[in-house]
Specification:
heterodimer, A: about 280 residues, about 80% helix, B: about 250 residues, alpha/beta, Rossmann fold, 2 domains, 4-stranded antiparallel β-sheet, 10 helices, globular, binds adenosine-5'-triphosphate, binds magnesium ion
Chain lengths: ~280, ~250
Amino acid sequence: MAYEITLLTTMAISVLFALSLNFITGFCGQISLGHAAFMGVGAYTAATMMKASISLLFVIPVAAVFAGVLGLLVGFASLRVRHDFLAITTMGVVFLFVGVVRQQEFLGGEIGISGIQQSVLGRTGFMLLCVVLAGVFAGFSLLVKRSWLGFVFDSIADNEDVSQVLGIDVAKYKLFAFVVGTATAGTAGALYAQHYRFVGPDSFGFVESISVLAMVVVGGIGSVWGVMFAAAVLSVLPLLIQFVDDYKILVYSALLFSMMRFSPDGLAGIVQRLLNRVRNR
Amino acid sequence: MKPVLEVKNVTVRFGGVTAVDDASLTMQGGDLIGFVGPNGAGKTTLMRVITGIVRPHEGSVWLEGKDLTKLATNQRIRAGLALAQQIVQPLRKMSLLENVALACGFSKTANPFKALKSFDKSAEKATARELLRRVGLQDVVDAEPSKLPLGYLKRLEVARALALKPKLLLLDEPLAGLNQSEASSLADLIKTLNQDGLSILLIEHNLREVLRICPQVYVQDLGKSLAFGNSNEIMNQPEVIKAYLGES
Ligand SMILES: Nc1ncnc2c1ncn2[C@@H]1O[C@H](COP(=O)(O)OP(=O)(O)OP(=O)(O)O)[C@@H](O)[C@H]1O
Ligand SMILES: [Mg+2]
């Protein structure tokens, strides 16, 4: 049972993390190659607080706020850059994050923070919490997609300049997406810290940022169900198959590039096309 | 009554090129003005200055007595401008109906929180359908823009601009790419909209239609305001004729 609980918890945290990136990249069309930094901010915030014996349930919202505030700042700084430049800027954020954390004594420097105590929820209770949070955010994402907010995001992802000419305050919408997405990544980070009871600078670097992007792209950029499925599968693959664990970045990058090459709309797109073909028979 | 639009001494330079050179224009509410001039006269650039897409080096733009100079494009749209662009820019991943419906929902899209609380699109879609019918696109409402010829997308631009319920409608060559009967029916629509009270500034190379529907014209040449007034009189002025034909 314990193993299944670990697997489910890992999946739920990854699903939440991938959906948080999907909100920014999938919904609003803003590429990010540094999303792990925001998970890291949440994880380190949570780890530090939990070491001070503060309850997990209080720690989670604080971690979300910290990550969201950083997200707002990065969002502001990124408003003027697009596409490739946005990719490079966000990549810079994750290198900066790792670089800064390594230097901080109070964050454990190179070694990180270990020995985080288990929460009062116990392992099963914590797993349920992770599943519920991932489920709630998935529900929220689906709601957004149906709302006028989703409609506006579609237009911004399609063409920012046109959106402006249609009276849409593109900057406001982008910042909204950044804050929601990064705060949620911070939440996933807090869960991560509790799950592994350890955080280190290498847990939230460029590799993790690419991994989560791979989950979003493989699932289908913008597709809530596709991203959930891809995140669930890809997160436990390294636990189930040793090879994937050994060559994680290689496997994920290969998946990322082959998807972009052969099915830019991911698994969701493949499923959609198959459904259409069956229907049109 | 304040003029609906005042362009005061606007100058725009792109590197060494002065695209707009100290141009001024005043429009009264209810005007339908033909904005003409040879290629490269800076018409589109001036239109972009009015909507805030291009920032002028000098000069200012006023809408109903309100200075727009410091406002971003989206704020100017909400202040009452709408633009149908010369280079068509449909949202490519949306149908024509969705393109127009999004614009119709401008009150719901004022900010993300309001947009998040709004779900129903039926009213906007109904209005969008009606607008697409008015520009003659009723048969392709569900089509993808990338599958349609230019003449259709030009009219989509117009429908989308109308969806914003503007006080002042800016049209940049809406008739280009349309055949003669399509052009004259769209020109008729422009005329009708104006008769219903909408102020319209119309950039157009199709002089026949301009002279047919616009009581007044504004002529620009080499970025400078050349003439403004009664269409037939202006188009007979020697310097206007020269600007159009004289380069040869
Ligand atoms: N973004 C830009 N960068 C550099 N030069 C530009 C830019 N936009 C316009 N120009 C130049 O400014 C001048 C005016 O261009 P503009 O498009 O405003 O003319 P126009 O009157 O709309 O012409 P047309 O009738 O062909 O549409 C031209 O010489 C053009 O090459
Ligand atoms: Mg032009």
